[in-house]
């Protein structure tokens, strides 16, 4: 894959996407959004890849949207260009996606991290939704995901009063899975991804879908979704291999079938 605003890399079973507009603190423009989603889609289709990592650099994961690109846009422009709707493509990724966040994750950058399935944060990470300071609100899921993750009051403060969370607070409030030193944050995220990549691939996908259902449905509907994902796994080779390996006290050899 050849891109102009991102870099991609494969390490074993892990696909890595690195935001690469360093001159703009990795702020999103239309080109970078398209390239990001195209790269994630390609990795999602690649059977060799089992887990994805999205990252920026030490100073900034992503510092929001490119305001210069949006400043003169009308409501019709924003609707027809589909910048916000494009974010729905992240939800369509079937494999686990880990955000490796260092430095600023603001606006769309925070929303990108929230859209991922797990977050590894460096000690310098800062999460925020500062859209209120330029006369708008988050439009790519920030108001909804923050409220579900953090509760109403803290989410409200972040959205209407520009409160940022540092790495320690993100861990405390359940926004981040773990916090690690800056100089090893990406390696820690890749190691985390490699652990998950050794799990049964089909079961991982079903598990991701089931957990996501808990945030999008009632308990009754979520339990139905869990059952819909649970029963079909008993028709897979991996289920037979996993249980056989457990009985035989050995490591399973997953096939993803």
Written description of the protein model:
The two termini are 27 Å apart. Strand 1 (6-11) and strand 2 form a beta hairpin. The chain has two domains: 6-197, 2-enoyl-CoA Hydratase, Chain A, domain 1, CATH 3.90.226; 201-248, Lyase 2-enoyl-coa Hydratase, Chain  A, domain 2 (Orthogonal Bundle), CATH 1.10.12. It is 46% helix and 16% strand. The protein has helices at 30-45, 67-70, 75-81, 88-91, 108-115, 142-150, 152-161, 167-172, 185-197, 201-216, 219-230, 237-248; strands spanning 6-11, 14-19, 51-55, 60-63, 97-101, 104-106, 118-122, 126-128, 165-166, 178-180. The radius of gyration is 19 Å and the shape is globular. The chain has a six-stranded mixed β-sheet, sandwiched between helices. A four-stranded mixed β-sheet has the order 4-6-8-9. The chain is built from twelve helices and ten strands. The chain is α/β, with parallel strands linked by helices and 257 residues long.
Describe the structure using short key phrases.
alpha/beta, 12 helices, 6-stranded mixed β-sheet, 257 residues, 46% helix, 2-enoyl-CoA Hydratase, Chain A, domain 1, 4-stranded mixed β-sheet, Lyase 2-enoyl-coa Hydratase, Chain  A, domain 2
